[in-house]
Amino acid sequence: LKPPPLPAQVIVDVREFRSELPCLLHRRGITILPVTIDVGDYVLTPDICVERKSVSDLIGSLNSGRLYNQVVNMTQHYRRSPVLLIEFDAERTGFALYHGRAAMSSELNSSDTISRLSLLTLHFPQLRILWSPAPHASAELFHDLKRGRPQPQLQLLPSVSAATAGDFYNDVDDSEASSSTSLTPAASAATLRHVARSMLLRMPG
């Protein structure tokens, strides 16, 4: 006889309880396992790890290089389905990279943010980006992603040391990125756009 299937469960980083998403998942009948997670914010299945960002947090973590480090860890330990979930307030911001005090004040800064996000997706093609207009929509997305898949296990969670973003541009292209070696505020928008444009031109089709 086959053992009974495990109840639906999600491993959640304890810092995520400042948001309402864990509560919304619980209301959907999903068991919440709160722990301190070294990689990601939510582990939905053995293969699906999610890093959740608000728009303001996305902008800040792109500028500091923190998001790069987080994606490095996710792609190392969840090669099949690392996910970046971006939650935005549809009523306040619409589908855009603008939010409150972090709102962009110039086209240059907006292009800078888009360039950083584009470089991230080009450098990590396995990364999946999901956009959600509200925590309720995020809970529905998680529920759909888990359907028919095995449950995550606490004992299988990875433990990692801190990654570094220092070689990001060198890994992409040593010759074109030698003047900008990390995703930091000091990286010029012009260099970011140049590297992104060069990479896009090399893509087939």
UniProtKB/TrEMBL annotation:
GO biological process, one term: resolution of meiotic recombination intermediates
Residue intervals of the ERCC4 domain: 9-90
Keyword Membrane part of the UniProt annotation: no
InterPro entries in the record: ERCC4_domain (IPR006166), Restrct_endonuc-II-like (IPR011335), XPF_nuclease (IPR047520)
Key words of the record: DNA damage, DNA repair, DNA-binding, Endonuclease, Hydrolase, Nuclease, Nucleus
An example Gene Ontology molecular-function term: single-stranded DNA binding
Gene3D superfamilies documented for this protein: 3.40.50.10130
Cellular compartments per GO CC: nucleotide-excision repair factor 1 complex
Cellular compartment(s): Nucleus
Alphabetized SMART domains for the sequence: ERCC4
Pfam families, per the entry: ERCC4
Principal place of residence: nucleus
Family: Belongs to the XPF family.
PANTHER family documented for this protein: DNA REPAIR ENDONUCLEASE XPF
Name of the protein described by the UniProt record: DNA repair endonuclease XPF
Species this protein is from: Macrostomum lignano
